[in-house]
Amino acid sequence: MCGQWKQIILTLLLCLLSALAIHAQEKTAKAPPKIIGYTVTLVDGYSFDVDEVSKQGDETWVRKGNIQRQIQGAIKSVKPIYEQPKPEAAETAKTVTTTSTTTPPKPTAPEQIWIYLVDGAKFRVDQVQEQTDGAWYSRHNVSIFLAKERISRIEYETPEAPATTRKTADWTSGDSGIDQLIRTNANRFGIDPYLVFLIIEKESRFHTRAVSPKGAMGLMQLMPGTARRLGVRKPFDAAENIRGGTQYMKELMDLFGGKVDLVLASYNAGEGAVLKYGRNVPPYRETRDYVKTIGKRYGLAGRQPGTQTEVPEPQR
C-alpha cells in the first residue's frame, strides 16, 4: 500500500514538472519580429528607407508615406527593417509608475520641409523623397517629381511656433516686394495667390526684364496687345505687370467659369484658341504641357468651382 502511494505521488510530481516546463517554454517563446519597412540600396551606394517595395513586371516600385515612385537605377539590395521589441510588462508598468508623477513633455512641432528652386523661389511641401536625379514631393495629396537641375536645396526645419496658413507662409519668390504684389493683386481680383505665384515662376522665373522670343514681356509675360488693353504702360515695372497679369487671369476665370485648366490654356495659347476647340484645352503640345505642369503643382482636383477656398471676394 505504501508503495502505491509513492508511485501516485511520483506521478503527480512528474505531471507538475511537465506543466511547469511547458509554461516556461511558452513564456520564453517570442513571436517573429514585425517588418515595418525596407532599406533599398542602389548599385551606386545610395540608400534610402521606404514603407513598401513591390514588383510590377520588370519595374520596381516603392512607397514612402503617400508618395509612390518607380526606382530608375539598378538595385543592389533590399533589406527589411524590423520593429524594435517592446519592453516587458513589468518594465512598462514600472516606467508608467515612475513617469506618471511628472509633467508629460510637450509634443514636438511638425517638421517643415522647404524646396528652394534655382531661381530663388521656394515652397513648402508635406513630404519629400530625394534621389539622384531629383526629388519626389507631395503637397496637398498631389505627388510630383522635380528634376535635380531645378532644385537649389531642400531644407528640413522644426518651427518654434505653430505653422501659419498656406495663404501667407508656404511659398515665396525670394523677393518680399514681389510676394506682396502677388498677394495684393490676387486679393483685389479674387484669384488664389499661389496660382499667380506658379504662373510667374513658370513664365519668367521672377525676372522682371524677361522677354520671350514671341515678344511677351516682364514677370507675367504679357504680350504687347494684351498689355495695352489692360492699361499696362510699363510692362517691365513689377507692380504694373503683376496687376495687369492678375487682371487678365480674372477675366479668364469669368469667361471660363473658374475652370483652372482652361484659364491656364488661355494664358498660354490665348482664349481664342480655347474657344476655337469648343472650350477645351487646345491640342498644342506646348499648351498641354503648360497646363499639366502648373495644374499638377496647383492640384486642380482640390480647387474646382464651388468648393471652399482661401480666396477672398474680388473688390468691386
The helix-strand sequence is: HEEEEEEHEEEEEEHEHHHHHHH
CATH topology heading of the largest domain: Lysozyme
Spatial strand order of the main sheet? 12-7-8-13
The amount of beta strand, in percent, is 15-25%
Number of strands: 13
CATH architecture tag of the largest domain:
Orthogonal Bundle
Overall geometry? elongated
The rounded Rg comes to 31 Å
Report the sheet with the most strands, covering strand number, pairing sense and barrel closure: 4 strands, antiparallel
What's the SSE blueprint?
Elements: H1 2-28, E1 35-42, E2 47-50, E3 52-56, E4 59-64, E5 67-70, E6 75-82, H2 89-99, E7 112-117, E8 122-125, E9 127-131, E10 134-139, E11 142-147, E12 151-157, H3 166-169, E13 171-172, H4 176-189, H5 193-203, H6 224-229, H7 238-255, H8 260-269, H9 271-276, H10 285-298
Outline:
The chain has 316 residues and is α+β, with helices and mostly antiparallel strands. It is 38% helix and 22% strand.
Describe the structure using short key phrases.
316 residues; alpha+beta; SH3 type barrels; Lysozyme; 3 domains; 4-stranded antiparallel β-sheet; 3-stranded antiparallel β-sheet; 10 helices; 13 strands; 38% helix; elongated
